[in-house]
Amino acid sequence: MTPLDYPIWLRATHFFNLLLLTLAMRSGLEILSAHPKLYWNDDCRPGSEWITFTRKKQPQHDLELWTSRDEEEAFSSWIAMPGHKNLGLGRHWHFLTDIGWLSTGIVYVVLLFATGEWRRLVPMSWSIVPGAWRALLEYLSFHLVRTPGAYNPLQQLTYFFVVFLLAPLTILTGMAMSPSLVARFPRYLKLFRGRQAARSLHFLCLCAFAAFLIVHVLMVFLHGIEQELALIVLGQTHAPQLGLALAVALLGIAAIVAVHIAGTQFSLRRPRLVQRRTQALIDPLRKLLFGRGLSAQAYPRSAISPYFRVNGRPPNDPGYEAMARNRFQTYELEVGGMVEKPLRLSLNELRALPRHTQITKHCCIQGWSAVAEWGGVEMGRILQLCHPLPGARYVMLYAFDDKSSSEPDPGGPGYYYGSISMELARHPQTLLAYEMNGHPLPIAHGAPLRLRVETQLGFVMVKFIRAIELVAEFSHIGLGQGGWREDHQYYSPEAGL
Ligand SMILES: Nc1nc2c(c(=O)[nH]1)N[C@H]1C(S)=C(S)[C@@H](COP(=O)(O)O)O[C@H]1N2
Ligand SMILES: [Mo]
Question: Which of 100, 167, 425, 428 is the most exposed place for a label (fewest CB within 10 A)?
Answer without folding.
Answer: 428
